[in-house]
C-alpha cells in the first residue's frame, strides 16, 4: 500500500476468483486490524454540514473510532453553527469497526453530553472488519452497552434482504428480523418489495414484543404449556 496526497494506492494480491472481482458502485474496501489516523471530517464534509445544519433533522457519521472523533464533530458544529437548534442536532453514530466497539462507552459519553444520540449497528462493515464469527458477539455487546446507557439502537444491514428484493423471505431472515426487536429501530434496504417487507417486519416485531422487551424476556405464560396442562387435567 502506497500513500499519496490524494489517498492511497492498493495492490490486491489475492481474490476469491482467479480473474479478480469488479468492485460495484457504492462499495468500498475494508482493512481489518488496521488503524488509520485520518480526520473524521473532510473539507467536503465541512461544506456539507453548513447545509445539513439547516435542512437535516439528524446527522449520521460513518467510521467513528472514539471520543476524539465526536469532539471534532461537535467542535465543527460549534464553529459553523447557525442556530441553537443546529448545535444540539441529533447524531447517529455508525459502529463499523472493532475499535469503535472497544471505545463505545466513552464515545457515548462524549456524544450524548451535548447531542441526542442513537447508535447504528452497521453489520456489513462490522462483519468485514471483525470477521463473521465475532459479529453476533459484538452486536450483543453493543446492545447491552446501549441499553445500560439508555441510548437507542438502529439494527441495519440485510434485514429481510431477500424479501425486499425478491418478494419472498428466507427462514434465516425471519429469525434475524425477530432478533432485530432488541433494537429501537430496524432499517430495511431498498428494493421492489420494500412495502411488503415493512408490513412483514411490523408483524414480526409485534409478535416478538409479546415475548421480550429489548433483551429481557417477559416470561409470559406459554400457549403450548396451557394446552398440555388442559390435556393432563382431562
From TrEMBL:
| Documented EC number(s) | 2.7.1.40
In the record, the note on similarity to other proteins reads: Belongs to the pyruvate kinase family.
GO terms for MF: ATP binding; kinase activity; magnesium ion binding; potassium ion binding; pyruvate kinase activity
Q: List the pathway annotation.
A: Carbohydrate degradation; glycolysis; pyruvate from D-glyceraldehyde 3-phosphate: step 5/5
Protein name (database record) = pyruvate kinase
Q: Which PANTHER family match?
A: PYRUVATE KINASE
Query: Does the UniProt entry include the keyword rRNA-binding?
Result: no
Residue limits of the Pyruvate kinase barrel domain? 20-189
Keyword Nucleotide-binding, does the record have it? yes
Q: What are the entry keywords?
A: ATP-binding, Glycolysis, Kinase, Magnesium, Metal-binding, Nucleotide-binding, Pyruvate, Transferase
